[in-house]
Amino acid sequence: MQALDELGKVFGDRLLTAAGAMKVFESDGVTALSARPRAVVLPLTEAEIIAAVRWCFRHEVPWVARGSGTSLSGGSVPVADGLVISVNRMNRCLRIDPDRRLAIVQPGMINARLAREAARFGLHYAPDPSSMQVCTIGGNLAFNSGGAHCLKYGMTTNHILGCRVVLADGELVTLGGESLEGEGADTLGLFCGSEGTMGIATEITVRLVPPPEAFYCVLAGYSDVEQAGEAVASIIASGLLPGAMEIMDAMAMRAAREGVGATYPPGCDAVLIVELDGSAQSVEASREKLDELLRQSGAIAIRVAASAAERLAIWTGRKSVFSAVGRLSPDFIVQDGVVPRSRLGYALRKIGEISRETGIPVANVFHAGDGNLHPLIMYDGRLEGALHRAEQVAARIVRLCIELGGSITGEHGVGLEKRDFLPEMFDEASLDAMSRVRIEMDPKTLANRGKMFPSGEGEPTGLYGLHPLEKSGVISRF
Questions:
Q1: How distant, in Å, are the alpha carbons of 219, 220, 313, 317, 322 from that of 310?
Q2: Does 53 map to a domain?
Q3: Is residue 475 part of a domain?
Q4: What's the rounded mean pLDDT across residues 210-216?
Q5: pTM for this prediction
Q6: pLDDT digits over 238-283, tens only?
Q7: Same domain assignment for residues 275 and 340
């Protein structure tokens, strides 16, 4: 405990060591995975983050940077007896430059708050994760978050210009800058999406864009979810590039109805939300083509948002699903696989078959435009073996994505839950290259130890038919 006294001199009462105070930091959005840290620090400045990281380096204590803890892959679960560096109190917007269309923010800045700050200057921050009301820009950077509108506007990496980063030994470096034109190796691109294994960002420079002049938001109902998936492929094949395309199945619609009072056309087992945006002229030129494509796709109901309020209601229903499913099931696993758009219909049919075969309900809601599936696998954790059975369903869906030429993750990250699937997606040479980069950046593997990379023999493992961490801790093979 003497070593902790050093942190106490820096952080005072912002050093948490009591079990009750640290309880909230033991897990993230994947509550089946948890570990108790040695301590939690709540820095207010960059200098305090540096002090905490250097303390860890001296004492060889693994650490994890944490924002709001909304990770859905176990990415911000602490290492047992490690340190949590919580950045929530570093949540200020340091500068907005409307002429250069950029903002500089601290890592604890909430995504939706940044969007509101930018709107004061007639600008917009495009990435819009479903958790945008609570998730932080630092976490978005770490996991390269997307959102409903990533089809047209890209992921977080497409909107980050630069950042100040504290590396695992406490060195402060600057990646990128304030220009769209970078020089040399793309170290910023390497850092974005590294899930906290390369350091912790203390300041983040983001790109802002003008908001669209006009929107055309349509909700189309279908008799089955496979038909909705095929409609997505036809829209993309036509050359249209909507701002967003989202699909919800019957169970996801039920959750949204019960959660936020959303309404959907009767007799539909799936709905497709398509939104065109841009200049008024471009939207007007595309809307007739979209309407015709939806009619040809076999939609049995088409509802156009006639006002901003109706558009907001459609999106509120869609973005409520993750939390609203809690009304249908006490527990659920959120999957995050990706399949080629041309295989969407097939993938959805196979997921339905897996659900019926196992008797485990699965609600489907996803970013249809880029094939990013978000099946929600429901179970009751109070029943013996229920989590294990749900994990097995999730594993089958992950492997289905790999078999179809997709990915094990689109935006939630690998974290703990999917790290052992990496060898099924990448060959040995690729995994070796990744691990060598990891070690070069952090030879002691202190930064978010045990995340992303496959676990070694005998190490604690993640979800999907394996074993939750609980109090075992997280150990890297490096």
A1: 11, 14, 5, 11, 21
A2: no
A3: no
A4: 96
A5: 0.90
A6: 999 999 999 999 999 999 999 999 999 999 999 999 999 999 999 9
A7: no
**Three-state secondary-structure class, residue 116:** helix
Return d(Cα 174, Cα 205) in angstroms, integer.
11
pLDDT digits (tens, 9 = 90+) for 320-378: 998 899 899 999 999 899 999 889 889 999 999 999 999 999 999 988 888 999 999 99
Spatial distance between the Cα atoms of 431 and 365, rounded to a whole number of angstroms: 31
Q: How many domains does the chain have?
A: 3
Looking up tokens 């973005």 gives 319
Give the neighbor-by-neighbor strand order of the sheet with 214-222: 301-304, 214-222, 270-278, 244-249, 362-367, 375-379, 331-334
- Is the pLDDT confidence value at 465 over 70? no
Residue found under tokens 């099924």: 424
Beta strands at 172-176 and 160-166: parallel, antiparallel or unpaired: antiparallel
Handedness of CA 66, 67, 69, 72 (dihedral sign): negative
| Final residue belonging to a domain, choices 299, 322, 345 | 322
> Are 399 and 58 in contact, with CB atoms under 8 Å apart?
no
Q: Which domain holds residue 301?
A: 214-322
